[in-house]
Structures are given as C-alpha cells and as structure tokens.
From TrEMBL:
Residues 3-42 form the Alliinase EGF-like domain. The lineage of its organism: Eukaryota, Viridiplantae, Streptophyta, Embryophyta, Tracheophyta. InterPro entries: Alliinase_C, Alliinase_N_sf, EGF_alliinase, Ethylene_sulfur-biosynth, PyrdxlP-dep_Trfase, PyrdxlP-dep_Trfase_major, PyrdxlP-dep_Trfase_small. GO terms for molecular function: carbon-sulfur lyase activity; transaminase activity. This is Alliinase. The keyword Thylakoid does not apply. GO terms for biological process: amino acid metabolic process. Keywords: Pyridoxal phosphate. Its cofactor is pyridoxal 5'-phosphate. It comes from the Eukaryota. Belongs to the alliinase family. Transmembrane segments: none annotated.
Amino acid sequence: MMIRCSGHGRAYLDGLSMRGEVACICNSCYGGQDCSVFTPNCAADADDGNPLFLEPYWMNHAATTAVVVSGWNRMGYAYEDDSNISKELEKIIRQLHAVVGNANTSGKYILFGAGSTQLLNAAIIGLSPPHPDRDHSFSPASVVASAPFYQVYKQQTDIYNSLNFKWQGDTSTWKNKSDQVGNFIEFVTSPNNPDGQLKEPILKGPYVKTIYDYAYYWPHFTAIPTPADSDLMIFAMSKLTGHAGSRFGWAFVKDEAVYKRMSSYLSINSIGASQDAQLRAFVVLRMVVKDKAKGLFEFGYKTMRERWEMLNKTLSKSKRFSLQKLEPRYCSFFKEVTAYAWLKCEREEDHDCYAVLRAARIISRKGSVFSAEDRYARLSLIKNQDDFDLLLDRIDELVSQEEQPGLKTI
Ligand SMILES: Cc1ncc(COP(=O)(O)O)c(C=O)c1O
C-alpha cells in the first residue's frame, strides 16, 4: 500500500516500525507527521544531484517494478559462472543501448561497479600501466579534465596518491604540450556536469587515453546525435532511471588488457558489484527495455524540458543573472534540456554567486567546486518537484526585486 504523506514525503519499507507503524520522511521544507506543514522561510535546496525527478514515473509502475527478495536468494559471492556479473542483466543493458541508440556496445567488454563512481577510478587504474620497479625515469600518467568539471575526478585521483597516476588539473593547460610530457588520461563528460555541454576530447596523440563519462548521455538530458563508440565508456543507473541509492553503474571497454586491469581492481576493491543491486537494476531496466524505452524518457524529457523552460522564462527578465546557452542539436523536434543550470552572476560586485543566491534563500553549488570562477553557481534541476517549485519561486522573487529600484536587492 502506498502511503501518501500529503504528497510532500515518502513512507519507505525500512521505515516500518516493529509495531507496524509507518513514518513519513518529509521533503525539504515540509514537516509534521504527514508532511503537510510547510516552513515558509526555509531555503530552496538546489545543491545536490539527487535524481528524484523520476520518482513519479516509478510510482506509476510500482507493481511491475516491485522486487521481493527472500532471505535465501543468491547468498553467495559469485554467480554460477563464477563471475560477479549477471549475464541476464548484461543482455538487458546491451539491448537498452541498442533501443536508445546512445552507444555501440558490440565487441566491448562490460564491467559493473558500485555506481559509476567506482568505475571512474577503476578506469584510471586500467589506463595507467603500473610503475615498473626501480625505473627512476618513469613518470605517472597525468589525469586531467576541462573546467568546469565534476569534482570527483580530482578527489578520487588525489585520494589514491598513486605512483602510477597524478591529478594535473584543467586540460586546457596541457593542450599543446601533451606529446612532450608523457601519458595523459583525459576525462570527457558528455553532456557535462555542470553545464550540460556535449564535450569532445581536447588532447590528442598516441600518449593520450580518454575516459568518456556518459552518466547523462540519455534522452531526458540531451539530444543523442550518434551512438557513442569510444574505447572506454562509463554509464550510471543513477541518472538513467533515478535509482541513485542502488549504487550501480557499468563500463564498456574495448581493450582486453585495460579490461583485465579494471576487473582485477574491482575484484580487489569490492569483490564485484552487489547482486542485490544487480537484481534491482535487472527488474527496472527490463521494464524500460520491454517498453522500448518510451515511457521513462517521455516522462523524464517532458519534466526536464518544463523545468528548463520555466527557469529560462523567469530568468529572461533578469540582467543580473544569465544561464548557459545550449546549442540546438541535430533534430528539429528536440528542444534543449539539461540536468543542471549553470548560472552566472553578471554584476561586477557579485563575484560570489553562491553567496548572492544564499542570501536569497537558495542553496546552489559554488563554481569553484567545478574548478570554475565563483561568479558561476550550479543549480540542480533533477531533484523532486517540491525542490524545483520552491527554487523557481525564490528565483522569481530575486528577479522581481531587480525590477523595483526602490527595493533593496539582496
Ligand atoms: C558526471 C558524473 N559522473 C558520475 C557520477 C556518479 O554517479 P553514480 O551515482 O553512478 O556513482 C555523477 C554523479 O553525479 C556525475 O555527475
């Protein structure tokens, strides 16, 4: 039975008490036992990329995507072929890419990870050959990405503090130098987090390897001009179906040696992806494939499109703030969408856009988190409807203050 929590909260399975009572977990800015009480001065939180905009779609498919798992189901470490990969799930994933047309998967190995997060680092390890003993001339592979970029690339590379690879910052610094200074590993995120641009590699040459992060290369976030066909491509279930908490992602790898190094890392690091997560992925992705991927993307695209249009409309009256421009792409029926708004504060004195927004009760993510100027801030458009509605209200308030010269602007 679905408990409504006034439409502003959720009652989860693990929220059931021993006495069978269900507790509502309320959306931000809502409270009370049934989540019906709105806190008027509460800040609109557009910080994180929690993809709850897809929750209503799964609520409409609650019965067909319910997973009931008894205590004895698949308790062992591995599947019957001794691998950590469900062959049925692999089939479904390959079919999904064929139906959507966003990736050519043939002739490529597949790997599963705890979210695409685990695979990002596995990819660096796979692409950076190990430091040979006693070779003092060996230099670690330089890991780079072009700003603004997803900060986890740097964080992960730094935390490993490896002899084999080292974070070397923004790709543009290395543009014309890549041939001279050893191996490079470039992250290319397409569409990009935070600005939604379809990116291409910047570095070229025999010593450059590329990791394509396609977490957002799905029709609800971008036009799909051609199926991706790169040597190392990473996908995330979180941004495809919205099931971020299942921590499931996959990678396609062309080169056998790279695949083997990645596979060995994943096995040492976690003994493979959780079979419970794989079961959840199997059930939801099977439904998406059976439906020829129509319903999910229609719902997702419509939602993202409406949000992007509403935000653009509200900000079109502003001289103080501007949004990124998304190039119209390839097919005329497709109108631009993006998972995140990349907002620029245009006034000279507004060099900390996060602070400007925070004063107006909007929580954004600072430009410097993405190695960009703090004149920029990211607003997440993929959260739940309450979060988006409140964000739009607050932006509207902020913009209308510009139009009233007598009023103090925040
Ligand atoms: C560009 C990019 N890559 C990867 C990830 C990680 O996703 P996952 O939930 O699959 O670990 C994110 C999450 O926000 C992301 O923005």
